[in-house]
Amino acid sequence: MEIPLFELNLQADLDNDRPETMGAVCAVVYLLTIIVFIPWAFYTELVAATPGSSAYDALTEVPRVDGGRIIQRFPHNKLASYLSAILSLQSVAILGISDDLFDIRWRHKVLIPAFAAIPMLIVYYVDFGVTHIMIPVPFRPYFGELVDLGFFYYLYMAVFAIFTPNSINILAGINGIEVSQSIVIAVLVMINDVLYLSPFTKSPHPAQESHLFSLYLLVPFVGVSLALWWHNWYPSKVFVGDTYCYFAGMVFVVIGILSHFSKTLILLLLPQFFNFAYSCPQIFGVVPCPRHRLPKFNARTGLLEPSKAKFEQPLAKPIQEVMKLLHKMKLLGITIDEKGQVTESTNFTIINLWLVWWGPMREDRLAASLLAFQAACGIIGLIVRHNLAPLLYTVDNLFAA
Amino acid sequence: MEIPLFELNLQADLDNDRPETMGAVCAVVYLLTIIVFIPWAFYTELVAATPGSSAYDALTEVPRVDGGRIIQRFPHNKLASYLSAILSLQSVAILGISDDLFDIRWRHKVLIPAFAAIPMLIVYYVDFGVTHIMIPVPFRPYFGELVDLGFFYYLYMAVFAIFTPNSINILAGINGIEVSQSIVIAVLVMINDVLYLSPFTKSPHPAQESHLFSLYLLVPFVGVSLALWWHNWYPSKVFVGDTYCYFAGMVFVVIGILSHFSKTLILLLLPQFFNFAYSCPQIFGVVPCPRHRLPKFNARTGLLEPSKAKFEQPLAKPIQEVMKLLHKMKLLGITIDEKGQVTESTNFTIINLWLVWWGPMREDRLAASLLAFQAACGIIGLIVRHNLAPLLYTVDNLFAA
Known about the structure:
2 copies of one chain form a homodimer. Chain A has a 3-stranded antiparallel sheet with strand order 5-7-6. In chain A, strands 1-2 form a two-stranded antiparallel ribbon. Chain A has a domain at 20-65 and 73-281. Chain A is globular, with a radius of gyration of 24 Å. Chain A has helices at residues 5-17, 22-41, 43-48, 54-59, 76-102, 106-109, 112-127, 140-143, 151-170, 177-195, 208-232, 241-258, 262-268, 270-283, 317-328, 350-358, 363-393; strands spanning 132-134, 146-148, 296-298, 303-305, 308-310, 334-336, 342-346. Chain A is mainly α. Chain A has 17 helices and 7 strands. In chain A, α2 (22-41) packs antiparallel against α5 (76-102). The interface between A and B is large, with 46 and 47 residues.
């Protein structure tokens, strides 16, 4: 198909103005904030390094083997965690910016978070090295209470690191959706974190430090995201770009892995999971995938409608049957011609599916209702997590303390 | 002065093509390399964490107080150093890229390296905390052998961190000069590092690990710089941008501070120091400073000539006298009108001064001869450092081992 010249020019103009890089500005401000925050995160320990302070006196009873060098008591492993977290986030920011600037190919950029996760996984290896998982009670007769996954646990973390940023990046395309889904997830994680902090538990909780670490990273993240949201919500003045999506995803990966609650986080990412699973037929080419899958704007009504993929050649019979089945289950909109052939279907994204379910709607209502769905899923997830865990693992780590 | 329209367009085109960002590509490749290198840098220790290996057996005799957790023996402080080095380099790369993209104001971007240095200075504080300096023998009667600079030592490091990247950034403007001066300095530091490694010293040198750390960071740096040099040498196809200059400077800052040889490094940066000191009158506005100070291309001869600053209003009498004095000392080219007023002078950069000394020359010859000068200064600096140190400090740390 030939593209008219004026469209090409428009595209070139868009490329030159680069409104996309606003996510990069957001990431840079965030990174500067958490770098400047380092001394505060380690305030007690830094003060403890000064003889004469009360914190120092409290520490002097710790037995030492190295002849009493004061600086040895500094929690280097905690600092290494914090630094590796910043490092992973910076790496993903740099790679995201490169992507926004140079348009890296899809099959390369999927792996961006894997590179960025290296520093974090190495610190995980040397600091925690915990690769066993607790088996839910019903399966314990077969596997025992703990199973050491060894290498596979690192594979799990790598897959988690690749999946999360990309899943946020594909649940995108309408004003404000990328930023606001990240804010919703971050706020839910923060609520979960606060539950572990002192006033809500009887004694200091063993996981308190992990959840404090998670808050250190999330509070400024919500801050910069709100600023971006202000400009990116419908009608948006700036775009967030791949940088923001990867960056936000990586924030979740970092806290999930280094604060040890990746499974809880997966509960909060269920809509993203569903969107990814639902997208698979198009991502892996079972069903033809157009260049863009965002909903179609109907200029007459001012509403968004589900966008459709047209099939020039008829699809294989079994695929058509599956699509008809999905249509009956209200999981897909399809058009059938007089010969009974599926000639087009709505694109396989949760955004289009939402429009199939609830009919055409305005862009901001679409985004807001998807967010309400995200928040509802997350809240139910958290409630289930803290109530179901005692059944599956005999005890929930929150109420155990 | 009105700028003709076609010049404005040319500028806009240059901005859009952004050949400047090649330094960013270079920095990103470098960062990925040293991130992927992390496990190799800690190979012995990572292997030691596996019970049964010979390295593990060698370590088991280390007394432990924490109930025998293996991972505690991992050198977290070394890892924190390495991570903080990468972090500082990444920060400077991100800020450099922002600068190339958004054109940050001069008075803000001077401080870029200071932000980037924060992670490194914090690791310095908790890991080494060494803030005393050795006093040269002639001054010992007055100050004692060691003086603890305390806070001022951090100030010194911050100034060093701000100064080095900026000094490379202002010794710039002709094809290839930024990259090749960095390569020359890096190679000289590497030669100095190699002197401390085993085959050259009788027993393992106490500073061996520091110099190994420096080599870890410098070998890939020289690698990416040579690739950039290939395209940036006269006649250049790409530009390096502020990103590269800040980045290269920060590499030197990081190894200088974390490997404890910032004073040796200053010896290798003498031409940059001189250039900065020489530039001060224009930087601080004592003498009017034009927008660009690069040498002027003479299209007729094909040679570069010193560029000049014209003084619309006559300068203050004392300044004119100093300029005439500098002219007599062959440190400045000036033009004097019939009234004895200085109406113009060459710009205050070492590149222009070089052209004043040796006359107009082709761009590549100019760059090559400046580099030869840089290399000569550095080699003399290193020889002096290892021969003069025994006189000033009673012993040189290289030959002491």
